[in-house]
Amino acid sequence: MSLAGTYDLILERASARDDRRLSVESNRPSPRGVSTQASKRVFDVAASILLLAAFLPFLAAAMIFIEATSPGAALFVQWRVGRRGRLFRMFKLRTMVQDAEKGTGPVWAQDRDPRVTPLGRFLRDTHLDELPQLWNVIRGEMSLVGPRPERPLFVQDFTKRIPNYAARMEVRPGITGLAQVYRGYDSTIEDVRRKLAYDLVYIRRMSVLLDLKIMFKTLGKAIPVQLRRNA
């Protein structure tokens, strides 16, 4: 099957309404071969170094504006669960008010989360808040594309409640992914189940070319969102 045909098949499955059937078809995924994973890693490191160098002036300016417009550090650091269940510290630009979870503990983010600052809203809509994770990619903790890394408390809960949830941790988590392109923020356990189906399809068919398509799809989704915000 051609690359275009393979990608169309992925999108057809990932956009199917019957998410339960998709989950069954995607059960027990196995990552692609060693050569595919090696080429993906080389691409991740090379692209991350180039992107980090290109966006370094923006990152510096963004960090200054974040600290100037909202009390607290500009860089947000949080423990996440990575490949094979290993914990790592994930970096991102802070988009919420300081101590956003004080008094509540870990809670899911919302599409219109009141804890998000005005500047944070722009950074989230454009996914620019994720740029510091390029350093996580270079360090080998993340990939440019893959299942999004979750927090330890949520992973423990989801692993108990959702069959085959741990399978998504067989690969490095990503800055973006197939689930992020087609699904919004999680607000229920059923949302997590549906996203898992997308992640498992990706794991079975991941490649550098597919990663490029997902990255362009992410960019194509972020730009219209920001234009609607400014309309």
- Distance from N terminus to C terminus (CA atoms, Å) equals 42 Å
Order of helices and strands: HHHEEHHEHEHHH
Give the helix tally: 9
Radius of gyration: 17 Å
Q: pLDDT average, as an integer?
A: 82
Helix content: 40-55%
What profile does the largest beta sheet have? 2 strands, antiparallel
Strands side by side in the biggest sheet: 1-2
Strand composition percent: 5-15%
**Shape, per Cα inertia axes:** globular
Domain module count: 1
- Poorly predicted regions: 1-8, 14-26, 224-228
What structural category arises from helix and sheet content?
mainly alpha
Secondary structure tally: strands:
4
What does this structure look like?
- The structure is a single chain.
- This protein has helices at residues 3-14, 19-25, 34-69, 118-125, 133-138, 152-161, 178-182, 189-205, 208-230, and strands spanning 75-81, 87-93, 143-145, 174-176.
- The chain is mainly α.
- It has one domain (22-230).
- It has a two-stranded antiparallel sheet.
- β1 (75-81) and β2 form a beta hairpin.
- The chain is globular, with a radius of gyration of 17 Å.
- Mean pLDDT is 82; it is low at 1-8, 14-26 and 224-228.
